[in-house]
Structures are given as C-alpha cells and as structure tokens.
Amino acid sequence: MDPTIEGRLIAQRQVIAMLFAGRSQDEILHWLEEAMRDGQEDPGAVTEEAFAIEGALADERKALAREVRLRSGR
Length: 74
What we know:
The chain is mainly α. The chain is 72% helix and 0% strand.
C-alpha cells in the first residue's frame, strides 16, 4: 500500500475508534492537534517508508483538526 494512503487511513481509523469509544470532541481535537507539536528527535532511526507513513498520519491529523474547527466554529 502507498505510505501516504496508509498513514491517512490509520489517522482516520484512530478517530473513528475514539468516536466509538465515546471520546468528547475536545479530547479528539486535542489528540489531533498533538500532531502539530510532535517532533522526532532522530529521524534517521526509522526507515524511509515508516517516516513517510508517520508524516502522512500527522498531515491527516492536522487536516482533520482543521476540518473539525471549521465545522464546529472553533
């Protein structure tokens, strides 16, 4: 599977799981926005493909956070 698609699907799957687990909008938004603060200390410690997946996952979390804020008026 393409790493970008895989990363995006993982992020969406995690959000769906949080929704079914009954997490609040604030909790989910906080988790999504953590992607904007996370940084990896040693990017060379992971393979190029794994880094691409993690990057796509972070990008999708940011996109989802923007969408939540837009739709909720936050």
